[in-house]
Write a structure and sequence with these properties.
There is one protein chain. The chain folds into 2 domains: 5-190, 3-Layer(aba) Sandwich (Rossmann fold), CATH 3.40.50; 205-313, Formyl transferase, C-terminal domain (Methionyl-tRNA Fmet Formyltransferase, Chain A, domain 2, Roll), CATH 3.10.25.10. Helices cover 26% and strands 24% of the residues. It has 8 helices and 15 strands. The protein has helices spanning 5-16, 42-49, 63-72, 87-90, 113-119, 155-179, 216-225, 297-303; strands at residues 24-25, 30-32, 37-39, 54-55, 77-80, 97-101, 124-131, 141-148, 232-237, 243-255, 265-267, 273-277, 280-289, 295-296, 311-313. The strands form 4 sheets. Strands 9, 10, 11, 12, 13, 14 and 15 form a 7-stranded antiparallel sheet that branches. A 4-stranded mixed sheet has the order 5-6-7-8. The radius of gyration is 23 Å and the shape is elongated.
């Protein structure tokens, strides 16, 4: 059971290791983009290539879907980046239902664990396989695998690495369940007294606007934690007062004392574009204007005339 590219790797590794996939469950096709072309999920596209049985229920509690699921007589269900399942489904197979989650549970339960870990400046993250139960991301842990987060790594880079690590962990988990020899660790035993448990709620557009009043580290972590999607954004203001939306994908932080007003633009109009913040500068490397393609800062400055008279719009500046 899965939807995006992140889930394809796990499905592929199971097929490569000769496991029988009774069915692939994914979301229904839906229109997307400007042309509203009907789009198939990455998991469906892969399943079609491999000739797998595909189910695409609109509602998971639909009686016809539940009947189809029972008729499959699957021993085990595997969930990777799908939807919340009702108990009648996750409790159906004799070996249960396992989930691959993109964090080191019990930390970062929720919809956006990879983004939230980077946003919070974590130095380490990982993946967890666990048995599903009623409360989201709280089931008994089977295995975990850790990986470091480098200072300038983006959520997209971590996502791609965890996709591969996660697939290997799914294979390890399935093999252990097949042998009947695997741990089931209660998450409560991993929470030391006084430990704060970070959550990973879904990220909305209003969460992506940069507050230039925050520290250098927080802004830098926000940019890389939202890159490449849903992407941190700011608004440029021209000397004439025209406002232009700007997405920022890649930045470096430059620690340096200064007495410039927050959100001042510093540029030579040729090779660099920096924003003054508390504790230094955000040095923008890759960005995108509304309606334009993503580009590096040199190409951007070559085609877009901007100088130090321009400003960054923010009602939050103190």
């Amino acid at each position: 059971m899965g939807t995006p590219e992140f889930a394809v790797e796990s499905l592929d590794i199971l097929l490569q290791n000769n496991y029988t996939i009774a069915a692939v469950i994914t979301v229904p096709d839906k229109p997307a983009g400007r042309g509203q072309q009907v789009q198939e999920s990455a998991v469906k596209k892969y399943a079609l290539e491999k000739g797998l049985n595909i189910l695409q229920p609109d509602k998971l509690k639909d009686e016809n879907f539940i009947r189809q699921l029972k008729e499959l007589k699957a021993d085990l269900q595997i969930v990777v980046a799908f939807r919340m399942l009702p108990e009648i489904i996750w409790n159906m197979p004799p070996l249960g239902t396992i989930n691959l989650h993109g964090s080191l549970l019990p930390q970062y339960r929720g919809a956006a664990p990879i983004n939230r870990a980077v946003l919070n400046g974590e130095k380490e993250t990982g993946v967890t396989t666990f048995l599903l139960q009623q409360e989201i991301d709280t089931g008994k842990i089977i295995f975990q695998e850790k990986t470091p987060i480098a200072e300038n790594e983006t959520a997209g880079e971590i996502h791609d690495r965890l996709m591969h690590i996660g697939a290997q962990l799914i294979l390890k988990t399935v093999k252990a369940i097949e042998k009947g020899d695997y741990p089931q660790i209660d998450q409560s035993t991993l929470i030391a007294p006084g430990t704060y448990i970070n959550s990973a709620p879904k990220i909305f557009k209003e969460d992506c606007r940069i507050d230039w009043n925050k520290s250098l580290d927080k802004i830098h972590n926000m940019i890389r934690g939202l890159s490449p999607y849903p992407t941190a954004f700011a608004e440029l203001v021209s000397p004439e007062g025209k406002i232009i939306a700007l997405k920022i994908f890649i930045s470096k932080k430059e620690i340096a004392p200064h007495d410039l007003p927050l959100a001042s633009i510093i540029t030579d109009s040729k090779s660099y574009l920096k924003i003054a913040v508390k504790g230094g500068y955000i040095d923008i490397n890759e960005l995108q204007l509304a309606g334009k393609k993503r580009m590096n800062v040199i190409d951007f400055l070559r085609g877009f005339q901007i100088n130090n008279v321009w400003k960054i719009n923010s009602s939050k500046i103190e």
